[in-house]
Design goal:
There is one protein chain. A hairpin with a 2-residue loop joins strand 5 (116-125) and strand 6. Helices cover 18% and strands 31% of the residues. With 431 residues, it is of the alpha/beta class. The chain has eight helices and 34 strands. Strands 7-10-13-16-19-22-25-28-31-33-34 form an eleven-stranded mixed sheet. It has a nine-stranded parallel sheet with strand order 8-11-14-17-20-23-26-29-32, with no helix packed on it. The chain folds into two domains: 4-141, Hotdog Thioesterase (Thiol Ester Dehydrase, Chain A, Roll); 166-370, Hexapeptide repeat proteins (UDP N-Acetylglucosamine Acyltransferase, domain 1).
């Protein structure tokens, strides 16, 4: 409990604008309760209104904001700061406040990050709600004008490390859960929401209207554009609310309205590696594992438990069946229906897909030597252009073609397909 003298040490307000008499309860980082005895001697009753005294609604909000300020300024690191109004939302007046009333205000902390705090406040009289609102505050040092940098700090060390000078920029309307960890130089746009246990790496940009739900980690230098939903619950009937995750690496570009779902299964994760681009309206389902430098054109839909290896390229409007494995450096034509594993280095197309050619350009760009490229082409002819079955083709490859890392990887991939079901090596045959 804090009395009026203790409140004066926390808040800068003084009569006649100090509109709180005592803090009854204070749970740091969580909630506060304060009260104000409203008497006929208040200055504002003289003119509001003669013959019908009513406490002005703006002063009711001010009283609620002062309780909110005590909660925010009680947090570690905020001592001695000022809490400036940055916005009010969802304000509703339910009952007039009259002389003789005791105004009890309950405040709940919704989110804080850096110099921004958001709270929900409800003021009651005799248990009835008089006013409710959500308040946004900017927390600044008392020696600085709001929003300005300290001149001493700005000039003290002009040659400081560039990383130290990067500022995190969070729009006033963004909602950040107190448990979220935000790196340096991160930008979070208007009306975006960052949920519980989220980690965002340095220099990542989150656009407006992005929803990042719980248990999501995002690496450095990523760009997530408007309307994307990251970390939504899996679309899986076997999911029953267990803790699962989304893990996103560095340097990814996630365009407008992309959805990436958490995994199904306690402790499991949906994983996206580094340097990928997911264009607008793509979907990555639960428990998927994506490698590095993958490109997905618009409207690609990836079902659950899919494994996509490095440098795969998808055309637009591709649908991928669950538990499909797609080998590295594969290319998938637009509007394809992928219901079986896609071998590495292949160009596939169709509904369902068929191997059309070898991704020679992708092999060149990956610095695969001309000798190995020629050997892989010979292997593909034996697999897909001869009259041999798969067993005979693999035997011919091993007998006729000099081994290499790429060739061994291709052979292992083809053999693994036969261990699954329906042309999908990740599919349990008894499923």
């Amino acid at each position: 409990m804090q009395d009026i003298e203790q409140l004066r040490d926390v808040l800068p307000h003084r009569y006649p604008i100090l509109l709180m008499d005592r803090i009854l309860e204070l749970v740091p980082e969580k909630s506060a309760r304060g009260y104000k005895n409203v008497t006929i001697n208040e200055e504002f009753f003289e003119g509001h209104f003669p013959g019908h005294a009513v406490m002005p609604g703006v002063l009711v909000c001010e009283a609620m904001a002062q309780v909110s300020g005590v909660l925010l300024l009680s947090q570690s690191g905020n001592e001695g700061k000022l809490a400036y109004f940055d916005g009010m939302d969802k304000v509703r007046f339910r009952k007039p406040v009259l002389p003789g009333d005791t105004l009890i205000t309950d405040v709940e902390l919704l989110a804080t990050k850096a110099n921004i705090g958001k709270v929900r406040a409800i003021a009651r009289i005799d248990g009835d709600v008089a006013c409710e609102a959500e308040f946004l505050f900017a927390l600044v040092g008392r020696d600085n004008k709001r929003g300005s940098a300290s001149p001493a700090k700005a000039s003290a060390n002009p040659n400081k490390d560039a990383n130290e000078s990067k500022k995190t920029q969070i729009h006033a309307t963004a909602i950040i859960d107190p448990t979220a960890k935000i790196g340096q130089g991160v930008t979070i746009g208007a009306h975006s929401i960052v949920g519980k246990n989220v980690q965002i790496g340095n220099d990542t940009h989150i656009d407006a209207h992005v929803l990042i739900e719980s248990n999501v980690s995002i690496g450095r230098d990523c760009r997530i554009l408007a309307g994307s939903v990251i970390g939504g619950a899996p679309q899986d009937k076997k999911y029953h609310g267990e803790d699962s995750f989304v893990k996103i690496g560095d340097g990814n570009i996630i365009r407008e309205y992309v959805t990436i779902h958490r995994a199904s299964g306690d402790g499991e994760a949906t994983v996206l590696g580094d340097g990928n681009m997911l264009m607008a309206y793509c979907h990555v389902g639960h428990n998927c594992k994506l490698g590095n430098n993958i490109t997905m054109a618009n409207y690609v839909g990836i079902s659950g438990h899919v494994l996509i290896e490095d440098k795969v390229v998808f055309g637009g409007f591709v649908g991928v069946h669950q538990k499909v494995r797609i080998g590295k450096l594969a290319m998938i034509g637009g509007m394809s229906k992928v219901v079986q594993d896609v071998p590495p280095f292949a160009i596939v197309d169709g509904r369902p897909t068929k191997v059309c050619d070898l991704n020679v350009i992708g092999l060149r760009r990956s610095n695969i030597s001309s000798k190995v490229r020629a050997e892989i082409r010979q292997a593909y002819k034996l697999l897909y252009r001869s009259n041999l079955n798969v067993t005979q083709s693999l035997e011919a490859i091993e007998q006729e073609i000099e081994p290499s890392d790429e060739l061994n990887y291709l052979i292992d991939f083809i053999r693994s397909v036969r261990e699954g079901s329906g042309g999908r090596q990740l599919e349990n045959p008894g499923f």
